[in-house]
Amino acid sequence: MSRIEKDFLGERELPDNVYYGVQTLRGKENFYITGRPMSGEPSMVKGLAYVKKAAAMANRDLGALDGKVAEAIIKACDRLIAGEFVDQFVTDFIQGGAGTSINMNANEVIANVALELMGKPKGDYATVSPNDHVNCSQSTNDSYPTAFRLALILCLEDYAKTLCELRDAFRAKGKEFDRVLKMGRTHLQDAVPMSMGAEFHGFATTIGEEIGRIERSCDLLREVNLGATAIGTSVNAPEGYPKLAVEYLAKVSGEKFTLASDLVEATSDTGAYVQLSGVLKRTAVKLTKICNDLRMLASGPRCGLSEINLPQLQPGSSIMPGKVNPVIPEVVNQTCFYVIGMDLTVTLAASAGQLQLNVMEPVIAYALFSSISTMQNAVKSLTENCIKGITANKERTEAMVLGSLGIVTQLNPILGYKQCAEIAREGYLQNKSIHDIVVKERKLISQQKWDEVFSFDNLINPQFIKN
């Protein structure tokens, strides 16, 4: 079974079991870029449905849309919001037309679902039209970015929860390793002693900072241009529509959306996306550093630092028996590099807008959704497959501290920098311990004073001790 639909370019045949129409079909045929259709991002489908529902409610109240048609559209949108018909969103993420094919995909699916609810055949657009009814008082240029922003917020809420789980896993390790003494390092050289717990608590803190940045990015996304229509002048929209449509959007979605104060500016502006992309990049940079640290701390197992043990997940070599690699930090590193690259894509696309519209928003959407989803997957894997299973080599780290030349810094207040530097130099050249030089050979301090200075508590929480 099939049906014929037509637009001003001509007629096309569609299978009668699909809910999208002729304009979606053209978009599907024209854009086969990423291989990832809009159905791959259900939050965007849900965002479009929320926008179309809010628009129908506002148009109904203002008399721009017949009550029966509006109710059918609203019910159709509710079914999309509930997760139905996602597979009907077949247009590619990256496309020309500033998202027109995506907008029409939503309009046609909603129109045909509404027709079915009214007992009418698909394609009976005289009864419910994708353009005149579902898209009433709208343009792609306000409905698409508004739906995009809502979809991003929905994704970011889940992403933030994933980051919270990683933060909490690091905190738990911070408590577990609180009494593990280790050597801190700067320039990859021995510095001063610290607690391994403090190191892991630091990882938790830096991830926690990113969660706050995400929340602030969502605040920017909640300012929308719904009702701006084509370029911000609200052409074809009844008086009062922008304010009412945004109020309904906030009500039905549960998000605190506000209408932009300058709709012309808001229609062409992509600053919120640049800000969000920067936050995603910042998190990627931080995670890269953390994963590099984990790989270094776990290096070995016998010829490296070997301060911690990562969970052993799979054989690491096709030729070296028994070798196990830090595969989870490695894959997180690679994900972070990808996200950092996507930030450049967003930057270039945002800068490429002209006059009253930025037509590059589809690639911004692809970059941001892709970054969020891959980062979320990577963070989940890092939390569950790596961080929770890390163990500390406590005896080794303590022995490394007491055998290090870096602990001479603790003696600066007692012996002075110059003499401590000489002691460190002697230890380095003659392969002696600081303890042997200071206590046994030069007798510069007593064993009792040494024990006071180099107690565990003073090493991880140093107090100013004079002779």
Description:
The model has no long low-confidence stretch (mean pLDDT 95). With 467 residues, this protein is mainly alpha-helical. The termini are far apart. The chain is elongated and about 100 Å long. The chain has 18 helices and eight strands. Helix content is 58%, strand content 7%.
Class of secondary structure makeup: mainly alpha
Low-confidence stretches: none
- Taking strands numbered 1, 2, ... along the chain, how are they ordered across the largest sheet? 1-2
Contiguous helical run count: 18
Strand share of the residues?
5-15%
Please give the largest β-sheet: 2 strands, antiparallel
Compute the gyration radius: what is it? Answer: 30 Å
Order of helices and strands: EEHHHHHHEEHEHEHHEHHEHHHHHH
Question: Would you kindly provide a brief summary of this structure?
Answer:
The chain has 467 residues and is mainly alpha-helical.
Question: How are the SSEs placed, and which strands pair?
Answer:
Elements: E1 2-7, E2 10-15, H1 22-30, H2 42-61, H3 67-81, H4 100-117, H5 130-134, H6 140-176, E3 181-186, E4 189-195, H7 196-221, E5 223-224, H8 241-253, E6 258-259, H9 263-268, H10 271-297, E7 308-309, H11 327-351, H12 361-385, E8 391-392, H13 394-402, H14 412-415, H15 417-430, H16 434-441, H17 447-453, H18 456-460
Helix pairs in contact: 1-4, 2-3, 2-4, 2-6, 2-8, 3-4, 4-6, 6-7, 6-12, 7-10, 10-11, 10-12, 11-12
List keywords for this structure.
two-stranded antiparallel sheet; mainly alpha; 467 residues; 58% helix
